[in-house]
Amino acid sequence: MTQIGLFDAPLSLISGEHGEVSYHAGFLPPDLADACFRKLRDGVDWHAQRRVTYEREVDVPRLTAHFPLEGLRAGSAPKGVAPDAAGVLVDMAARVTAALGTPFNSVGLNFYRDGNDSVAPHNDRLQDLVKGEPIALLSLGGTRRMLIRPKTRGEPAIPIDLEAGSLLVMSWSSQLHYTHGIAKTKAPVGERISVAFRVRPRED
C-alpha cells in the first residue's frame, strides 16, 4: 500500500482481506513537527461546527478546517489560511504524497484543544473518496489515543497513541470493516492537530 522505506519501521495494525492500517512513528522530525504545529495553530481560521445528535443540536467537540490542495500548490493561499500555514500544508502534502505515491488533492484539519475535544467512532464516507486510495493522518502537537474498532461484534479494539510527527495510513477498504475515533479523556493532554490527506473525486 505504501512506498515508505523499511528503515521507518512501520507498525502494522491491520493487514489482510479487510484492509490495511499502518503507523509510522517519526515521519516528521520533532523540531519540524513542532514548527508545523505552531504555524497551523496560529495561521488557520478554525471553525466551530454544530450538528444534530438524537434530535438535539450540539457543538462538534473540536475545531475544523478543510482546503483543496490544488489552490495551495498553485501558491494562492485560500481564505482562512495564512501564507506560512499554507506553505506548511503544501510541504506536508508533498512529503506524504512522495512517501505513499498517492495523488492527494484534499486536506482536512482537526484541532483538539484539550481532553474534552474528541471524535466519535466513525469510518470515512466512502462516497466522498476515490475508491482504492488510502487516507493519511499526520499528527502534530500532543499525543492522543485512537481506538480502531472492528465492525464485527466481539472483536477487540486496537489502541494506538498518535504521537507528534507520526503518520497513520488507512486503506480505502479498511473503512468498510473498521471505525476509528478519539475519546474524551480526563488525563492531561496537550493541544493536537490532525492533518488528514485524502483523494476526493474531481468535479466535472
Description:
With 204 residues, this protein is α+β, with helices and mostly antiparallel strands. It has one domain (11-111, 121-139, 164-198): Alpha-ketoglutarate-dependent dioxygenase AlkB-like (Jelly Rolls, Sandwich). 20% of the residues lie in helices and 36% in strands. The chain has helices spanning 30-43, 69-73, 83-100, 174-177, and strands at residues 11-14, 21-24, 47-53, 56-68, 106-112, 119-122, 135-141, 144-150, 158-162, 167-170, 178-182, 192-198. The strands form two sheets. An eight-stranded antiparallel sheet has the order 1-2-10-7-12-5-4-3. It has a four-stranded antiparallel sheet with strand order 6-11-8-9. Strand 8 (144-150) and strand 9 form a beta hairpin.
Shape by Cα distribution? globular
Helix percent band: 10-25%
Mean pLDDT: 91
Largest sheet: 8 strands, antiparallel
The radius of gyration computed from the alpha-carbon positions, rounded to a whole number of angstroms, is 16 Å
In short:
By secondary structure, the protein is α+β, with helices and mostly antiparallel strands.
SSE topology:
Blueprint: E1 11-14, E2 21-24, H1 30-43, E3 47-53, E4 56-68, H2 69-73, H3 83-100, E5 106-112, E6 119-122, E7 135-141, E8 144-150, E9 158-162, E10 167-170, H4 174-177, E11 178-182, E12 192-198
Antiparallel strand pairs: 1-2, 2-10, 3-4, 4-5, 5-12, 6-11, 7-10, 7-12, 8-9, 8-11
Helix pairs in contact: 1-3
